[in-house]
Amino acid sequence: MASSERNQFRVAATSAELAHSRQQAWQLYQPAPPVTVPAFGREWQLRPGLTFTPFANAVRCTAHCAFCSEELQRYDGHQLTAKRLIDDYPAYFARLREVLHPFRAWPLGLSLSGLEATAEPQWLRELLSCLTQLEHQGVVFDEKVLYTNGSGFVHSPDLALALQDFGLTRLELSRCHDDEAVNQQIMRFNRNQPMRHNGVYATTVRWLHQHLAIKNSCILTQAGIATLPDVERYLTWAAGLGVGQVVFRELSRLEGSYLPNVFTEWIEQQRVPIEPLLAAVVPTLEAPRLGWQYTGSTLGYYYYNEHYRWQGVDVIFETSSYPALQAANATGVLQKLILHSDGTLSGDWDPDSRVLSRIAFPAPAQP
């Protein structure tokens, strides 16, 4: 089994081994010994390869996805950082420099996620400039990933050039269906967002493909992509746009760990379990579905992936567990670092949980 700082990769040699991996999934992940880093007046235990997220919410999101994780609140949660917009850029970027200073020379993955980073081009440009300056000062990002619905590229295509200059590893572009009407039912773009239309999406993807490595991200849902024929049709469509890698994600398994609301209800009603898809693609290594080739499995601390090749496209099926993520957090080892929009640096999506450092930004002015 090959290990990276973030996960472990194995290629099953037998059908029994593959079945065992599918059954145990993330439970087979073997965490590396934590590293100790002094920061903010004490020592912290960090998972090797952890990621840093400057939570993107300078403006409201340009879509309202029915599965949005920012609308979920744990029973032990306190507040949602998505409700607090970044309204003081100089203070925010000064804080960004401050919180990353103790972690210079420690390799971090950069995960640009939260709401929609491209929705406010000025903020994203300033963020990339600030992070580049920090790299010159010794901060190390060994992987840089942007998770986006792509809407901001329509009016600001130069963002692709800025990301290329920044050395973005890949751009994960969300699209939940190859039919724009079905996709809109799931992703629910604002009406003024051209990205809702397939023609605009196709033009944008072809432009991005000239400058960045693109991975399409498709959430599996009963209303959208749910069966293997659906998957193969989506892959044909994506390949026609020049996309060479696609990930199909099962909706994260909540297992009763979040307060019930319309989003948790939708997630459970729309869930497409990944196991039947995997069994249909490769029931056994000796008898894969025609055109499919198994290439390996990834074990993460709260997720499990299987990798395939299909007609020249790299395909990944992914499942994940929020309770497994919370169990890893409960060990006391920091699994990731998140700079929230109120200036709090924490090891959790909840800005009041696993706090490393807090600063009081002035409250935003009321309209």
CATH topology (level 3) name: TIM Barrel
CATH architecture: Alpha-Beta Barrel
- Rg computed from alpha carbons, rounded to a whole number of angstroms: 20 Å
CATH class: Alpha Beta
Mean pLDDT: 91
Shape: globular
Query: Structural class, judged by helices and strands?
Result: alpha/beta
Count of structural domains: 1
- Main β-sheet description: 15 strands, mixed
Low-confidence stretches: none
Fraction in beta strands: 15-25%
Within CATH, the superfamily carries the name Aldolase class I
The number of helical elements comes to 11
* H/E topology pattern: EEHEEHEHEHHEHHEHEHHEEEHEEE
Number of strands: 15
Helical fraction equals: 25-40%
Q: Can you tag this structure with a few keywords?
A:
single chain, about 375 residues, alpha/beta, TIM Barrel, 11 helices, 15 strands, Radical SAM protein, rSAM_sf, Aldolase_TIM
Secondary structure blueprint with pairings:
Elements lengths: L1 E2 L4 E3 L4 H10 L10 E5 L2 E13 L34 H12 L7 E5 L8 H16 L4 E8 L3 H4 L2 H9 L3 E5 L5 H8 L10 H12 L4 E6 L8 H13 L4 E5 L12 H9 L3 H8 L10 E8 L3 E8 L2 E8 L1 H8 L4 E6 L5 E2 L8 E3 L10
Overview of this structure, please?
With 367 residues, this protein is an alpha/beta fold. It has one domain: Aldolase class I (TIM Barrel, Alpha-Beta Barrel), CATH 3.20.20.70. It is 30% helix and 24% strand. The protein has helices spanning 15-24, 89-100, 121-136, 152-155, 158-166, 180-187, 198-209, 228-240, 262-270, 274-281, 322-329; strands at 2-3, 8-10, 35-39, 42-54, 108-112, 141-148, 170-174, 214-219, 245-249, 292-299, 303-310, 313-320, 334-339, 345-346, 355-357. It has a 15-stranded mixed beta sheet that branches. α3 (121-136) links the parallel β5 (108-112) and β6. It is globular. It starts with a strand and ends in a 10-residue tail after the last strand. The model has no long low-confidence stretch (mean pLDDT 91).
